[in-house]
Amino acid sequence: MKEIYGFTVKNHLGKDFQLESNKGKVMLVVNTASKCGFTGQYEGLQKLYETYNEKGLEILAFPCNQFGKQESGSDDEIQSFCQINFGLTFPVYSKLEVNGTDESPLYTYLKSEKKGLLGRDIKWNFTKFLVDREGNVVKRFGPNVKPIKLVEDIERLIGR
To answer: Strand, helix or coil at 113?
Structure first.
């Protein structure tokens, strides 16, 4: 099976971004939405990024419109929303699907590595996958787990 570093995703401008660029870093991969009850988690994600990015944390946010049509905007509109409302400095990539026949191969891989409490599929926006410096998917967190609750796991992985 392919390792996480073998995947290529699209940035918000539609340009290829190879996850190999994050080799040796801890990654937090999150499917996001602008009109969701969990959208406020962008604030906590930004705080994690500000605190831990220089120590090796990368946050990869992937907008997704599969849950309640809560991310219906274009990539440009999503970028604008994230900047205006949350001042995000971590990358928000191009919108993708996390379940179904058109799901991103990255999400097929993440879900195969760590199943959720109710099975393989992503159940809602702001599901989070934590990846260690060696590229191993070490934990999956449900949408209701706020970013502040990930600090201990992130610190443990950054310290390795």
So the answer is: helix
Please give the tally of structural domains in the chain: 1
Catalytic site positions: 36
Asked if pLDDT for residue 44 goes beyond 70, the answer is yes
CATH of the domain at 26: 3.40.30.10
Q: Are residues 78 and 34 in contact, defined by beta-carbon separation less than 8 angstroms?
A: yes
pLDDT digits (tens, 9 = 90+) for 118-148: 678 899 999 999 999 999 999 999 999 999 9
